[in-house]
Amino acid sequence: MAKKLRVGIIGTGSIAHAHLHSYLKLADDVKVIGGSDIVPGKARAFFDKNDLPQAKAFDNNEELLACELDAVSVCTYNSTHAACTIAALEAGLNVLCEKPMSVTLDEAVEMYRAAKKAKKILTVGFQPRFDPNMDLVRDIVGSGVLGKIYYIQTGGGRRRGMPGGTFIRRELAGVGALADIGCYSLDMVLSAVGYPKPLTVSACAFDNFGKNPKHSRESDVFDVDDHSVAFIRLEGGIVLDFRISWAMHMDSMGDTMFFGTDAGLKIKPAAVNHAWSGAWDGTIGPMFLYSDVAGQHCETPIPLRNPSDDRFLLKVKKFCDAVREKGESPIPTIQSVYNQAIIDGMFRSSQLNKEVEIKIPKL
Description:
By secondary structure, the chain is α/β, with parallel strands linked by helices. It has 2 domains: 5-127 and 311-327, Rossmann fold, CATH 3.40.50; 128-309 and 342-357, Dihydrodipicolinate Reductase, domain 2 (2-Layer Sandwich). 31% of the residues lie in helices and 25% in strands. Strand 13 (284-293) and strand 14 form a beta hairpin. Helix 9 crosses helix 11. It is globular, with a radius of gyration of 21 Å. The chain starts with a strand and ends in a 6-residue tail after the last strand. 49% of the residues are buried. The model has no long low-confidence stretch (mean pLDDT 94).
């Protein structure tokens, strides 16, 4: 029998449960060795709650990384993704890091270089990548039927869907809605067009709901964005119109659209008129192709594929398979760096109130 993949979990907060449950579903090939959390006793409580008394629990990452492991999931808050990931890579481990990749572009670059130096896999948790309808979007765009793509609109919005805790404090999250759900929207469209390098960005960020006690129970500590918009120039003459929101007085932030010289593709939100509607996190709604046929304007509905039952499980499985087979990262690390470069640029632009250049060092 093949040796089981030995994994650990750094950070045992809410998202760690999804990682653990996915690993447990892969128990024929994967063994959870242990986990760590800087809050004393939290890791032990995490494993006990999930009926894993044999799992080792530590109050620091160093002891976990000293165990005999093949890989780890990094499930800490955003501002520590880089440090935890780099430490794991330097310990010779493969890493599945939760999204967003980091807080700044500089951190993302350091993570990329650490993975390259260690010759280990570093992938970021964009589970929507593994939905068959994401494949469908990529298949349509990649087929060339749209012609040259020159303009893309993407994003999403929740009418009321603001998280709390570590998500709304800059020292822990770095940024708010922009990174929390905005990274998904960016990955959706950028992966479809081959992830061109970002060049410039002009952005604005708002916090009208987060700092209002009518809409937020933690308004006194809220110091990130709850709504961000941006105009992004990409290599290849593509313009990206981006918008994302945790809370708003509107039913939707609009559709995702690819404008091409031969045709256009529209992807509607999967759910509207609900409090958490319209935030693009991988669930694709009705899809339409717009083109001219024999001089007539045509709108063609695209039948959707059966959605995946568990995109999160697929994300974890693809990572484990890549580690076991010594293959490539399921999501190329450089693509996650570009994603983070845009988030970093949007944050800087909104702070400076002007357009900024995105400079990615040679990697």
